[in-house]
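Teaching note: in complex prediction, the entire set of molecules is handled at once rather than each chain in isolation. The prompt given to students was simply: 'Predict the structure of this complex.' The entities are:
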Amino acid sequence: MDRYSEHPPEGPGRPERTARPPLARIAASIRTERERIGLSLTELAKRAGIAKSTLSQLESGTGNPSVETLWALGVALDVPFSRLVDPPRPRVTVLRLGEGATVPSEHADYTVTLLASCPPHARRDLYVLRVEPGAPKTSEPHSPGTTEHAVVASGRALIGLSDEPLELGPGDYISYPGDVPHICQALEAGTTIVVAMEHV
Amino acid sequence: MDRYSEHPPEGPGRPERTARPPLARIAASIRTERERIGLSLTELAKRAGIAKSTLSQLESGTGNPSVETLWALGVALDVPFSRLVDPPRPRVTVLRLGEGATVPSEHADYTVTLLASCPPHARRDLYVLRVEPGAPKTSEPHSPGTTEHAVVASGRALIGLSDEPLELGPGDYISYPGDVPHICQALEAGTTIVVAMEHV
DNA sequence: ACCATGCGTTCGCTATGGAGAACACTCGAT
DNA sequence: ATCGAGTGTTCTCCATAGCGAACGCATGGT
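The expected output is the structure of the full assembly:
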């Protein structure tokens, strides 16, 4: 699978943590974000109040920015700072009820299933959706870097990317990029869905 | 220094982002975390591979650490880096089905309720719990800074802090600190709960 | 053709973050 | 009271992050 498979069932332990600061990744992030906003290196440097030489070196992977500098960039890019320190993005994933790695438990009548380990420093806002059958509710893409996670609590629904939605029932889980057109349509009355909206 | 003052005003909608890097807060975080682990300044410095003088200055709010340094501290403290950069913590919150701010929608048969806006840079891992009635499942405190969010999908359950759990039904939402003893007990067969585990 | 204006890179120079030693302080043990 | 081992603080020195200027390279206007 993808990046999730590499997370060993994130045990009782703590989130993984690399030994060395991802300077290269920071470099990449900055460049990516900058280009996404459509700013030139010169402009960004000016806006962030840092020398463009500094920025240039940062983007080339050279150097080890101070918090002050990196923060200024975060502000200028309107990006949650730590986003600059961390990585890329997922695809559509489905976990049917009963599927998925189950964390062993001392109680037999108690089951925990990890749906999605949170990418470092992403934001996940939690929602409950209550949908009635009817016209499909299509969403225009949200801001880039968004991922949606949904668990159907009750009812049935058609959820996912607009071009290939999936039918899900109670307990089923799906995640998909939120920055492309996607859809949510109830198939039964009183369909309830728990959604985590992830802004990386 | 005041290179930040020239920054354009905060864009609406986005997560709050202060104009200046929270050096004071970083200082506080480091000290807090260090003391929580019960390490001396000297020990931590050694473990992180930085000079204790540096650490001392950092904790006193003086200075502007490089990413390298801060990262080393994050590793040594076993703390998700961005935790060092960000702030305090929540309490128990309950949102019964139908309560809560509802985002207006163009469709009458479509309701979105915001449960919990994600604090900047928190991690939220998603789980599904399937619990059968029986002995209450009590959890020892997880790592400091953890918050749990739970939405009951089906059934009924007694959830919350060990000393004052609450009975929740389908659609109900609760959040509570995960770093103190808490409890989860099903009251009906086939109780399903969606949980977001938040490591700040 | 030419210059003007934008880009991102590379050059010193200086301000400062970080390392290490020396420092003052608080405890127990002798 | 005196030492020893621990704490956290404050020094001095050096490596370097960050700055500003100069550079090379693409544009497009005249």
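Point out the following to students. The longest helix of chain B spans residues 23-37. The two ends of chain B are 28 Å apart (CA to CA).
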